[in-house]
Amino acid sequence: MKRNWLLYPYVVWMILFTVVPILLVFYYSVTVQGGGFSLTMAHYARVFEPLYMSVIWRSIQLALVSTIACFILGYPVAMILANSPDKQQFSLIVLFVVPMWMNFLARTYAWLSIMENNGIINAFLGLIGVGPLSLLYNAGAVVLGMVYNYVPFMVFPIYTVLRKLDPSLIEAAEDLGANPVRSFLKVTFPLSLPGVLSGVTMVFMPSVTTFAISQLLGGGQFTLIGNLIEQQYLRTYDWGFGSALSIILMIIILISMGLMSRSNVYEEGGLI
Amino acid sequence: MTRDNLSNVGAEMIRLVDIHKEFDGVTVLDRINLSIAKNEFVTLLGPSGCGKTTMLRIIGGFESATTGDVLFDGERINDIPAYQRKVNTVFQRYALFPHLNVFENIAFGLRIAKKDVKEIRDKVQSALELVEMLGFEKRTIQSLSGGQQQRVAIARAVVNEPKVLLLDEPLAALDLKLRKEMQLELKNMQKQLGITFVFVTHDQEEALTMSDTVVVMKEGIIQQIGSPINVYNEPTNIFVADFIGESIILEGRYLEHCMVEFAGQKFPCVDIDFAPMEQVDVVIRPEDVDIADDPAEGVLQAKVSSVVFKGVHYEMLAETDDGLEWMIHSTTMAPIGQVIGMSIKPDNIHLMKKETKGPEVTAS
Q1: Do B99 and A190 touch (CB under 8 A)?
Q2: Containing domain of residue A198, as a range?
Q3: Is the model more confident about B3 or about B237?
Q4: How many Å apart are CA A236 and CA B288, to the nearest integer?
């Protein structure tokens, strides 16, 4: 308790850069823009218009799809990593981490040049007489961008949990008659759930809020809630509506996190 | 302890034939041949790194021998995976499933075997009864003490009614009192269940207390196989003598029929299979040194240099004129500084052939 003062810089930081902005966003969302303190619910009412609801719904759908895709791709990778010999493990991890050192936008732009109409894939398809296919500016391209960018966030928490898993538990399961498949389903997987939940949270959150990926790979046509918020703040200057959207997005994330922590496995691993 | 339960020991259950095991070119088991009978309580005893756990893991199916065969009930099971073997294991640190409660941990094997709900409930119940843990069904593993986890681990293994139970230092993490209790309980359980126990430990006292047969190992090689009394009283070499109980080990010379010289004196002995003037190692148990207050009553004279009260006996160190230090266990005490007389009965003097590459054992 003596060293409590060490916390103060963090508390000040939190208040200045997290609490105050959130309160400001909340303030904008319930007041008439330029109208001083006159309260209004009009911004929230607008959020529930079908046009915007469909954008929110689409965002959640795409985020869910990419989270599931990340899980399906990431879990086996995490297992391979955790089970490979120590020396190989390091180089495999480096292999995974190095692309993350590159700028996020640069990586996403790279996909543009791969998938555009005269990009690498279509050039190759042209050689064998197919195409050109329109690969960009659809839901698939956006999901691909999300999965590509966020799959490491799924792999690492699962890898960490699997790595810590006591191998004698697997042996115990085998000893009690479980073949490899059943011992995975009854022991390895349930015990890795904390990692899976961290991974799901860490992929779902940036996916549901992204605007860069949908802007680049979805083209202007493919609006997600993140793009909507960006538009309100930077183009239409409707801060009130943008703030209302932000608050709703926060509530969505809080609810989804609440649902996940209810599954009561957090005590084991928790968020990384 | 006698081998009176030898009569219960049945036909051969497990046979290890010429087992050789290497890890990365390093030999950890060499020329292992061992036969384990039905209902037998066999202990693999040795210092850490002697290969005893590897041997257990080969029987359990978690390791495979580099060469050699494992026979189970007469059948070669080298290539049978662990999950198809009719053995169950109590792991060193229990390896209980942290995501399952006590009931589900014990029911694990039965559920895998797709037993019906009622049978599972009954069997788990009687397993809990066996380990005296009734009422703990719903408890989480984390809420149990070490001793309770130990019991659950045993219940989880025996509930599957294996033909052989493998135990890998299961008592190592328990405190002394609990360990002694569990030793007796395990022994009773083994008699009650009528199954073969293969028990790994580095604790010689544990091995002597519980086993029908003790297998003493060192550096991947079996040193001696015998009953507890046999390995204690008739150790085949200095390593066994030193590892099983305390020993005084001295250099000696076999003089003639039933006469040996060591510590500068001649002693009558009972060993006969040595050549005259052959160099031998002499092994004497500290409790076999008889002491007398009057130095003249002993063959050797020594000055007491330390006395420690051990409960049942005193542990004393006494030094002879030639600088040899003798450890003595006796129920009577001689104060520090007193010169005592020491003598040894002929059948308490154990002679051993000099090993060409002798183990690093010194007179303790």
Answers
A1: yes
A2: 66-222
A3: B237
A4: 100
Please identify which residue in the block is written with the tokens 């059943």: A182
Cβ B82–A174 below 8 Å, yes or no?
Answer: yes
Write the CATH number for A193.
1.10.3720.10
Print the domain residue range for B211.
Answer: 12-241
Q: Which two tokens stand for residue B39?
A: 């209902």
| Per-residue pLDDT reduced to its tens digit, B248-301 | 888 888 988 888 988 888 899 888 788 888 888 898 999 999 998 888 888 889
Question: Choosing among A175, A179, A266, which should be mutated to test the B contact, i.e. which has the most B CBs within 10 A?
Answer: A175
Question: How do residues B95-117 score in pLDDT, each as one tens digit?
Answer: 999 999 999 999 999 999 999 99
Contacts of A85 in chain B (CB under 8 A): none
How far away is chain B from the Cα of A167, in angstroms, using its nearest Cα? 9
Q: Find the angle CA(A161)-CA(A166)-CA(B55) to the nearest 5 degrees.
A: 155
CATH number, domain with residue B127: 3.40.50.300
**Does A270 reside within a domain?**
no
30-69 of B, contacting A, C-beta below 8 A = 60-62
**Domain annotation covers residue B84:** yes
Q: How confident is the model at residue A3 (pLDDT cuts 50, 70, 90)?
A: low
ipTM confidence score: 0.79
Span B214-228, pLDDT tens digits? 999 999 999 999 999
Neighbours of B6 (CB within 10 A): 13
Residue B4 lies in a domain: no
Joined tokens for residue B164: 């052989």
In terms of domains, do B155 and B287 share one?
A: no
What was the pLDDT predicted at B59?
95
Could you give the number of structural domains in chain A?
1
Give the distance from residue A68's alpha carbon to the nearest chain B alpha carbon, in angstroms: 24
Distance of alpha carbon B169 from alpha carbon B202, whole angstroms = 8
